[in-house]
Design goal:
Elements: H1 2-25, H2 31-36, H3 50-79, H4 99-105, H5 110-121
Helix pairs in contact: 1-3
Length: 129
C-alpha cells in the first residue's frame, strides 16, 4: 500500500512539473500577431500552427493526470491512519489537592464569599460602584 502511495505522489509531482514546463513553452495571445508578419514561427519545430495545438493538448492531458493523482491522494489520505504526534507517549501528571485544602479555599455561603471578596479588595462595608 505504501508503494502505491509513493507511486501516486511521484506521478503527481511529475505531472505538476510537466504542466509548469508546458505552460512556460506556450506563447501568449499577443505572439500570434507577430507570427503573421513572418517572425520565424513557420520554421519552428511543430510548424506554423502545430505548436499551439500540440502544447495545449499536452497541457490538458498533464492536467487530467494531475487531477487524477490529486483525487487518488485524497482517497489515500482519508483511509490512512494518522501517524501520531510528538507528545503521544508523554504522560502528564496533574497534582491532586487534598480535600481539606479545597474545603478551606472555598467559602461555605454566599455572604462569606462576598465578605472574602470585599476584604481582598480592601473595600469592606462599601457599596460597589
Amino acid at each position: 500500500m505504501q508503494t502505491l502511495y509513493t507511486l501516486v505522489v511521484v506521478v503527481q509531482v511529475l505531472s505538476a512539473l510537466a504542466i509548469i514546463s508546458l505552460v512556460l513553452l506556450q506563447h501568449g495571445k499577443g505572439a500570434d500577431m507577430g507570427a503573421s508578419f513572418g517572425s520565424g514561427a513557420s520554421g519552428s519545430l511543430f510548424g506554423a500552427t502545430g505548436s499551439s495545438n500540440f502544447l495545449s493538448r499536452a497541457t490538458g492531458v498533464a492536467a487530467a493526470i494531475f487531477f487524477a493523482a490529486t483525487l487518488g491522494l485524497a482517497v489515500f489520505g482519508s483511509t490512512r491512519k494518522p501517524a501520531g504526534g510528538v507528545m503521544d507517549g508523554v504522560t502528564i501528571v496533574k497534582p491532586v489537592a487534598s480535600a481539606s485544602a479545597v474545603a478551606a479555599s472555598v467559602p461555605a455561603t454566599a455572604t462569606e464569599a462576598a465578605a472574602s471578596a470585599a476584604s481582598a479588595s480592601g473595600q469592606s462595608g462599601q457599596i460597589p460602584k
